[in-house]
Amino acid sequence: MDRIARRAALRKLAAGSLGAAASALWVDELGAFAREQAVHTHASIAAASQSTAGWTPKALTRQQLDIVATLSESIIPQTETPGARATLVDRFIDGVLAEAPATERDSFLKGLAWMDARSKVLFGKDIVSATPEQQVDLLTRLSAADSREARAGVDFFKAIKSLTITGYYTTEVGLRQELGDDGVLAQASFLGCTHPEHQM
User: What whole-number distance in Å separates Cα of residue 194 and Cα of residue 191?
Assistant: First the structure.
């Protein structure tokens, strides 16, 4: 059922139905930028992960990266297929933010700080230290059509949800294992012709 629900959510996103309330302009622009950058960002993550130095965040601190990993995993948790954390969605979001315009990156970071502060008010602990149930409770409050939470939090949730879905469903796991794509929906890289006589 979770798998079916995820697919339904992706179809809604693709159709443009992110909810009744209009998003702030920065949310829409950051989401569009992430979709444009998806293949490039995933390729950069893969290349950095294979280097001797390994991968390091470009836009986020390690603490911020941990919050992003926690929230993205709450949005797409591991079921019979890997969740957002296992598919490195947090690194994808960091890569997008590193290349995004400063105003959109700053708005995202303000929302990230808001999430931590709101978690402390509601649960007496930051969002990473909160229980999974508390994390889901806060996200549920933010996603409600009639949410009474601050606009900064509601907009941030829309942004991280959009980036998480884009980051997840542009990985091989998201496309092949989750959606059952056989290469028709998208192809992350184009290898070109492999015949020796056509190589330079």
Answer: 8
